[in-house]
Specification:
The protein is built from 15 helices and no strands. The protein is mainly alpha-helical. The chain has a domain of 132 residues. The radius of gyration is 21 Å and the shape is globular.
Length: 356
């Protein structure tokens, strides 16, 4: 049995990166209501609703590992270790995707001043927003650690409850009705709740009963959100759909908590006991998940690019035969190709810094 690894955390990273790729493989289908077959759209809708918990899970895992007051912590060492793993990929992949989209796809010239401005303002390729968000959480880590260390469980629960109410209910209602409440609740807005929630939920033990409740809740939440989204699209409220599927919406928060509890409640150590080969695969995929996140978009683009179609006579995306075929095939190929791309880059000097 391997030591030094938290198996359920590795499992969560793997299913989260698969969910991210599923989300990005179906986003065009999901946004095509009215222009694709309704059964195709429903599949995209359900997959979208079933995958939005992916990035919040990554944040919760960071909080789980970094906010534990029982572990020694040096902020200087923390920044020296963590920030390069964010900043180097951020600059490289921003420039890479800019070159790919602007030069190769749109046949335009790079506007260097605009590129620099975009890096500063965060107007980079859509999936790189995660790096900006995690930098903010890293900088606040000593404050979160102090809060957890000096406050009892009730006070941590109070913070999480207010965060849940503000993000899951108040902000959703404000957005739907186009109003703005007058209370200054900005301190409770954002991913900080997931960060603390990851630590808090990890302090609890979960059994089979908790797992079954979480599974039932997850199914109900996904079904309800999918039906609500259908209602919004069919009643000309398409602009309000993000209320349901935002990373910090009511349903996403509920789904994220359920996924965490379901995976943590399983005794992976006993289930995978003495199965070294599977444990090695899990470890390798988990360690590669960050690199896969950074590179997977270009793989998705390439699978449906003109170059790929010219070589293989077919593009791989949700349109291939039927989404029931196209989506799984896109996800599987993207995971495999992204993983091996990361492994190759990790073996190249200096290139390993862009997929840490």
């Amino acid at each position: 049995m391997q030591t030094g690894r938290i198996i359920f955390a590795d499992i969560l990273r793997i299913i989260a990166i698969i969910a991210v790729i599923t989300l990005h493989s179906t986003v065009d289908l999901f946004r095509s209501y009215g222009s694709v077959n309704i059964d195709w759209w429903w599949l995209g809708n359900i997959l979208n609703c079933s995958s939005k918990w992916a990035v919040p899970i990554f944040v919760m895992l960071s909080g789980m590992l970094l906010l534990d007051p029982s572990k020694s912590f040096s902020f200087k060492s923390f920044l020296n270790k963590r920030l390069p793993k964010i900043l180097i990929p951020l600059f490289f992949w921003t420039i890479f995707y800019e070159l790919y989209i602007v030069v190769l796809i749109n046949k335009l010239n790079i506007d260097l001043p605009q590129l620099i401005k975009n890096i500063y303002t965060g107007e980079v390729h859509f999936h790189l927003w995660f790096l900006y968000m995690i930098i903010g959480l890293y900088l606040f880590t000593p404050i979160f650690r102090y809060f957890i260390k000096t406050h009892d469980e009730f006070e941590i629960q109070f913070f999480l409850c207010i965060w849940f109410i503000v993000n899951g209910i108040v902000n959703s209602l404000d957005t739907f009705f186009d109003i703005q409440n007058g209370f200054y609740l900005n301190l409770f807005v954002g991913f900080s709740g997931y960060y603390v929630l990851g630590y808090y939920l990890n302090t609890k033990l979960y059994n089979r009963k908790h797992r079954y409740i979480a599974i039932a809740t997850l199914i109900f939440s996904v079904a309800t959100s999918a039906i609500l989204i259908f209602f919004l699209f069919t009643n000309n409220f398409a602009s309000k759909v993000d209320i349901v599927i935002d990373n910090i919406s009511l349903f996403t928060i509920i789904n994220t908590i359920c996924i965490f509890i379901i995976v943590k409640s399983i005794d992976w150590e006993s289930l995978l006991k003495n199965n070294t080969s599977i444990l090695n695969i899990i470890k390798s995929l988990s360690l590669s998940s960050y690199g896969i996140y950074l590179i997977h978009i270009v793989i998705i683009y390439l699978l449906s690019s003109n170059i790929f179609i010219k070589i293989f006579k077919v593009g791989i995306n949700y349109k291939l035969v039927h989404p029931l075929v196209g989506v799984p095939l896109t996800v599987i190929l993207t995971v495999i190709l992204s993983y091996f791309s990361v492994q190759i880059l990790k073996k190249i000097k200096f290139a390993n810094n862009i997929v840490p």
